[in-house]
Amino acid sequence: MLLAIDTSAGTSVAVVDPTTGRALATRDTEDSRRHAEVIGPFLAEVLDEAGISPAEVTAVVAGMGPGPFTGLRVGIAAARTFAAARGVPLLPLVSHDGVAADQPQGGPFVVLTDARRREVYWSVYDADGVRVAGPGLAKPADLDEAIRASRPEAVGWDRVTVASIPAWRLGALAVDRLASGAPFADDTPLYLRDPDVTMPGAPKRVKQ
After folding, report:
1. Which H helix or E strand runs over 137?
2. CA pair distance 110, 162, nearest whole angstrom
3. Ramachandran class of 167: left when φ > 0, alpha when ψ lies in -120 to 50, beta otherwise
4. Roughly how many angstroms between the first and final C-alpha of the chain, as a whole number?
5. Tens-digit pLDDT profile for residues 49-94
6. Best exposed site among 54, 112, 150, 207 by fewest CB in 10 Å?
7. How do residues 175-206 score in pLDDT, each as one tens digit?
8. Burial 165-193 (b: 16+ CB within 10 A, else e)
């Protein structure tokens, strides 16, 4: 069984059957402020609903963003901790890929999620739903220019804005990649923004 976790926007957790790619249990909220409060209960609830124990999880799928530092790190830390405790693989994926796979109309389109600070994260997908540019970060007023710089023809494509990433779709994508041997993403969070914390400078000398 695959356990899928994403907190790059809201919080989403799912148990996915690796033989079918279908969700056995899901929990989702678009609340972008309570990741730490809901992640534990969500994990317990999906395992209980799916009728499995932690020992039956064979891999953990983690949405690596893009996402704000405060929320994204909660899901990645939970995924890494669960995988390490069980001794199973961690399967990292770009969170926007789950949104692209969840679109019934197919591509091409641009996926957008809230980056806070009056900015958005964006990724561009072609007619086959393959990511061809991004993830990137831009202010709404600069979005067209940011997309044009990476994929000029995508400026006029439909835009899909979501408040939560469907973790079960990430799980289904992981099933496909495991079957085909396609690579997973790097195990590196996609914050796309420098942290607020800065290294302190040299201490000032105190004169007697």
Report:
1. strand 131-138
2. 11
3. alpha
4. 67
5. 999 999 999 999 999 999 999 999 999 999 999 999 999 999 999 9
6. 207
7. 999 999 999 999 999 999 865 444 555 565 65
8. bbbbbbbbbbbebeeeeeebbeeebbbbb
